[in-house]
Specification:
The protein has 224 residues and is an alpha+beta fold. The chain folds into two domains: 1-37; 38-218, no CATH class. The chain is 22% helix and 42% strand. It has three helices and ten strands, in the order H-E-H-E-H-E-E-E-E-E-E-E-E. It has helices at 3-37, 52-61, 88-91, and strands spanning 44-51, 67-70, 97-104, 108-115, 118-126, 130-136, 150-164, 175-184, 189-202, 209-218. Strands 2-3-4-5-7-8-9-10 form an eight-stranded antiparallel barrel. Strand 4 (108-115) and strand 5 (118-126) form a beta hairpin. The radius of gyration is 26 Å and the shape is globular. The chain starts with a helix and ends in a 6-residue tail after the last strand.
Length: 224
């Protein structure tokens, strides 16, 4: 082998070695990330407290829909579980869906409800000091999977105020529960739906709360 051929061979070997090193540098972090994000079947995580600032960051990052649906299991009046015998005629105005617009501030989340392009009422949710996050593998099938997707849920509860069609029920002790639902891995979240429940004050004898309103809607394409 001539000197030129030896130099060419040596140069080729160096280039290939560098290429292999670069390739490993590119692939290894990805593999490490994938391994760290992988959720093993049967995973169940204890509830985690989410501080106020994190709640605000998450909620403000979500793309809320322009329409929500009302639902009240077992009730004839869609979405409105309250019984108002003295204002029964008003119940006929309640709809099974509403257009909404949402204003987010440092202290409140305001949901404005509209029907036929007319504002019919607002729910002003006070932001709590903390929320609760839960996540788990909900797949009950016996599948041989090395990695699964976690069901994820964020629960937020506090007091609120209401106007318009909600005003008659805004008494002391009324509270809301905002539930953010989605899925993901150890590394990312994909929230898809929210449920908003409004409950009356606690009954002194039964220690139970009456469900007043129940709404749900679906987020736009957002990832966190």
């Amino acid at each position: 082998m001539g000197i030129l051929e030896k130099k060419t061979s040596y140069l080729y070997s160096c280039v290939m070695s560098i290429a292999v090193v670069v390739l490993l540098m590119i692939i290894s972090p990805t593999q490490a990330h994938s391994s760290a994000c992988c959720v093993e079947p049967g995973t169940w995580n204890k509830p985690v407290t989410v501080p106020k600032e994190n709640l605000k960051t998450l909620i403000h990052s979500l793309k809320f829909p322009e329409r929500v649906y009302a639902n009240c299991p077992g009730a004839e009046t869609a979405g409105f579980c309250v019984n108002r015998p003295d204002t029964q005629e008003e119940n006929n105005l309640f709809s099974d869906q509403y257009k909404i617009s949402i204003s987010l501030s440092d202290q409140h989340w305001r949901f404005d409800f509209r029907e036929n392009n007319k504002r019919v009422g607002s729910l002003i949710l006070s932001i709590p000091e903390k929320g609760t996050s839960v996540s788990m593998d909900t797949n009950l099938e016996q599948k041989k999977e090395s990695c699964v997707t976690l069901y994820k849920e964020l629960q937020i509860e506090n007091d609120l105020n209401g106007t318009g069609i909600f005003a008659p029920d805004m008494v002391a002790g009324v509270s809301y529960r905002l539930i953010i639902q989605g899925d993901g891995t150890h590394c990312d979240d994909h929230f898809k739906r929210f449920i908003l429940q409004i409950e009356g004050p606690e009954n002194n004898s039964t220690e139970e709360r009456q469900l007043y309103y129940y709404f749900y809607g679906f987020f736009g394409n957002t990832s966190n």
